[in-house]
UniProtKB/TrEMBL annotation:
PROSITE patterns: LYSM. Residues 1-21 form the signal peptide. The keyword Signal applies. Residues 337-383 are annotated as: Disordered. InterPro entries: LysM, LysM_dom_sf. Residues 104-151, 170-213 form the LysM domain. PANTHER family: LYSM DOMAIN-CONTAINING GPI-ANCHORED PROTEIN 1 (PTHR33734:SF35), LYSM DOMAIN-CONTAINING GPI-ANCHORED PROTEIN 2 (PTHR33734). It comes from Apostasia shenzhenica. CDD domains: LysM. This is LysM domain-containing GPI-anchored protein 1. Residues 358-383 have a biased composition (Polar residues). Keywords: Signal. Pfam families: LysM.
């Protein structure tokens, strides 16, 4: 099995067109999809709602994926600075046998060219050739103003795992000056892991390449018929689901998805766990001689407009403390010089502390926010690439570096 794959890789990488940008391709066959993230650098000042419109994404989803506080007034009209790096959530589908995000449409404006749309507006996430092919454009110079273009965007699923742990994949456009060790440190992963995931023979990247970066995440196990089946939330971030009724978060203390009522939506179905007086996210504990008797009311998915809840009891060695939420930051107003040059996975807080994500947690003592900034500080990941891991990547999704033009 491994031999033909290796031969194929060698053949492709020995072709002379490596001067073009490379991106990681994940073949797929079934028509499933997964949550993925697009690493997007703003080409100009844009409102939150304008960024969302570029990707036909929910503004709230973009904010929560970046741990930006959504409960400040008029947050969708906040202006974000040019050069800001954001993680934009997208649905990663399977189309033409490879993973890509195909839900984005762009309406052309005066003076747009395919190259300016690809390189500037979408910050290198798509190439002019890919846009041309996706829209069967014969003559790129005859672009009409107001024409709607499909913008195919790169994404990967890899079973939403990395080293057998839940992960969500970020499509990262390499900036000039980036090195694999620096990118690995920025995202608390290892050079080996990035090389394995992207099937790289050597840790060499250049500006414009697109890397798949695994981010540790909290997985859900909602039933397949739930509309939010497969929900995966990156460590340190939030996600709104169930028509904005439910807010889920991941980390920082552990990678168990934690969901509670949000106060964004006005009409929501019941969030009380049947047979108890506990609401979604409530945890009660009682110390007993055998250990701590923990009862929790957790979220089980959104089905037919109904919020599924699950009451679970467990005996744990110690009673859990108050739930810790990921730190929230206000909408960034500037981009620091460092983060403009290098990858910046999360916006830099422009004022200390975070605000409180739910009305429930505003009760003093029911939640703790880490006081320090979550930014930077590589956690010194111990993730090691085993031959088995490498093999699993090769087998379950044959990856290769290739100019995107030929496959996307
Ligand atoms: C996919 O992930 C699930 C858990 O999310 C795991 O049980 C399964 O073994 C994985 N499949 C492969 C092929 O890695
Ligand atoms: C999750 O993020 C927190 C801080 O944001 C970090 O301390 C922790 O190590 C991360 N967990 C994993 C598994 O990466
Ligand atoms: C644990 O708590 C639940 C609910 O409070 C109760 O029904 C159950 O009997 C308790 N179990 C033990 C072992 O104390
Ligand atoms: C959702 O509702 C439809 C029609 O009301 C019903 O046929 C279907 O079985 C429901 N699905 C689930 C998972 O309950
Ligand atoms: C249960 O959750 C509700 C809503 O999130 C919150 O208002 C309430 O304070 C919580 N109760 C307990 C005992 O934690």
């Amino acid at each position: 099995m491994a031999l033909p794959v290796a031969t194929f890789l060698f053949y492709l990488t020995s072709l002379p067109f490596l001067v073009f940008s490379k991106s990681t391709i994940e073949p797929c066959s079934v028509s499933d999809s997964c949550n993925a993230l697009l690493g997007y650098t703003l080409y100009t000042e844009l409102k939150v709602s304008e960024v969302a419109a570029l990707f036909q994404a929910d503004p709230i989803a973009i904010l929560t994926a970046n741990a930006i506080d959504i409960y400040i007034p008029d947050v969708e009209n906040r202006i974000l600075p040019a050069g800001l790096f954001l993680k934009v959530p997208t649905l990663c589908s399977c189309a033409d046998g490879i993973r890509k995000s195909i839900s984005t449409r762009y309406k052309t404006r005066p003076s747009d060219t395919l190259a300016s749309i690809a390189d500037s507006v979408y910050a290198g996430l798509a190439s002019a050739d890919q846009i041309r092919e996706a829209n069967s454009i014969d003559d790129p110079s005859a672009l009409e103003v107001g024409q709607t273009l499909v913008i195919p965007l790169p994404c990967t699923c890899f079973n939403s795992t990395d080293n057998f742990l839940p992960a969500i994949y970020l499509s990262y456009v390499v900036q000039s000056g980036d090195t694999v060790p620096a990118v690995a440190a920025q995202y608390s992963t290892t050079v080996t892991d990035i090389m394995n995931v992207n099937a790289m023979g050597s840790p060499v990247i250049k500006a414009g390449d697109i890397l798949a970066i695994p981010l540790p995440a909290c997985a859900s196990n909602f039933p397949r018929y739930a509309t939010d089946f497969g929900l995966t939330v990156a460590n340190g971030t939030y996600s709104m689901t169930a028509s904005h009724c439910v807010q889920c978060s991941c980390g920082p203390g552990n990678l168990n998805l934690y969901c509670t009522a949000s106060s964004l939506a006005v009409s929501c179905s019941s969030m009380q766990c049947r047979g108890s007086n506990l609401m979604l996210g409530n945890v009660t504990s009682q110390a007993t001689s055998a250990g701590c008797n923990v009862t929790s009311c957790s979220y089980g998915g959104f089905v037919n407009g109904t919020i599924l809840t699950e009451l679970s009891m467990s005996l744990q060695p110690q009673c859990p403390g108050p739930h810790q939420f990921p730190l929230l930051v206000p909408p960034p107003t500037f981009v620091s010089h460092e983060s403009a040059l290098g990858p910046s996975p999360s916006p830099v807080p422009s004022q200390p502390g975070g605000t409180i994500p739910t009305p429930g947690s505003s009760i003093p003592g029911t939640s703790i926010f880490p006081g320090s900034s979550p930014a930077n500080g590589p956690a010194g990941s111990t993730s090691q690439a085993s031959p088995l891991h490498l093999l699993s990547h090769l087998i379950h999704a044959i990856l290769f570096w290739l100019i995107s033009k030929f496959l996307l």
